[in-house]
Write a structure and sequence with these properties.
Layout lengths: L5 H5 L8 E2 L5 H11 L11 E7 L1 H17 L5 H9 L6 E8 L8 H21 L3 E5 L7 H6 L6 E12 L21
Antiparallel strand pairs: 1-5, 2-3, 3-5, 4-5
Helix pairs in contact: 2-5, 3-4
Length: 189
């Protein structure tokens, strides 16, 4: 019998290469993202925004990343270059979750980044609840300022996650999880 925590107990990532069509349709995606942005937000800063990569835009993005990669690493093998080119093309939909940091705020930047990270996780959790699969990926492109420019990010903005979404094409076994007893302690004075 499912419990109220079943969703959390069963959620797992599906490798982006194993995500195919369909992605959430427009109405479902809107509903998913509306729910995903309901996160703890100290100071009501809304320190995040979302960028959709879909269709031909994913391939164009990959081509630009491959150009940056080869420029930065001219010795890169053809196989690695092809991996860069195709990295965002497997899942039918990729949502870039961007942290919009406000350094002059009284809210520490780490809390702002965590807020954006919660959005990314909510997208994964919501996608799973709707019967879709997802994977949170970063990679070098999430931290590269030239890539940030391609995405139109301001200086105070940073990619937190590229969330790849689609329908699982295979049954993905759950991975080993840590034992709670190894993680939980009780503080005593």
């Amino acid at each position: 019998m499912p419990t109220a925590l079943s969703l959390l107990q069963q959620r797992h990532s599906v490798p982006s290469r194993q995500l195919g069509e369909p992605a959430p349709d427009e109405a479902t995606l809107h509903e998913l993202l509306e729910a995903a942005i309901r996160v703890p937000d100290h100071g009501k800063l809304v320190p995040f925004r979302l960028i959709r990569l879909q269709g031909e835009a994913k391939l164009a993005f990959g081509e630009q990343l491959a150009a940056i990669a080869i420029r930065n690493h001219p010795e890169m093998s053809d196989a690695k270059l092809e991996k860069e080119r195709l990295r965002y093309t497997f899942a039918p939909l990729v949502i870039a979750v961007v942290a919009r940091l406000q350094p002059d705020s009284k809210v520490p930047e780490i809390e702002q980044k965590l807020c954006a990270g919660n959005v990314a996780y909510n997208i994964l959790l919501g996608a799973y609840a709707l019967g879709y699969g997802g994977q949170w990926l970063t990679g070098w492109a999430a931290y590269d300022r030239e890539v940030a420019g391609i995405l139109g990010l301001a200086e105070h903005e940073h990619v937190v996650s590229f969330v790849h979404l689609g329908t699982p094409q295979i049954e993905v076994p759950d991975r080993d999880r840590p034992a709670l007893t190894d993680l939980l302690s009780t503080w005593t004075p």
